């Protein structure tokens, strides 16, 4: 199954709830699921990691459905078989340990 099909599947299952909830509250759900994935990784709980990662993707797809964004298309537009910063594969950018150190 490709990402485009997964996004359509999530739309068919949840669009009635997602539309009612709206963009901002759906984003809050996504953030909550990322925090649960963080906890699962900290606990080294592989079953929970798989479940929480799936939840993160499902909520991201719900959010994209609400914004009418084709995530597969957007992803391929940015990451077209190369790093979007340096244009190389593999990436030749300077290594960055965390998102905060430039
Ligand atoms: Zn790069």
Written account of the structure:
Helices cover 67% and strands 0% of the residues. With 102 residues, the protein is mostly helical. The protein has a domain at 3-69: Orthogonal Bundle (Helix Hairpins). The structure holds zinc ion. Zinc ion binds next to loops.
| H/E element order | HHHH
User: How many strand elements?
Assistant: 0
Distance between the termini: 36 Å
Q: Main β-sheet: number of strands, strand sense, barrel status? A: none
What overall geometry do the principal axes of the alpha carbons give?
globular
Contiguous low-pLDDT stretches (5 residues minimum) are none
Q: Write the CATH architecture name of the domain at 3-69.
A: Orthogonal Bundle
Rounded mean pLDDT score: 96
CATH topology of the domain at 3-69: Helix Hairpins
What percent of residues are in strands?
A: under 5%
Helical fraction: 55-70%
The radius of gyration over CA amounts to 16 Å
* Count of helical stretches: 4
Instruction: Say which molecules are bound, naming each kind only once.
Output: zinc ion
Name of the CATH homologous superfamily of the domain at 3-69: MazG-like
Q: What's the CATH class label of the domain at 3-69?
A: Mainly Alpha
Structural class: mainly alpha
Give a quick precis of the structure.
The protein has 102 residues and is mainly alpha-helical. The chain has a domain at 3-69: Helix Hairpins. Helix content is 67%, strand content 0%.
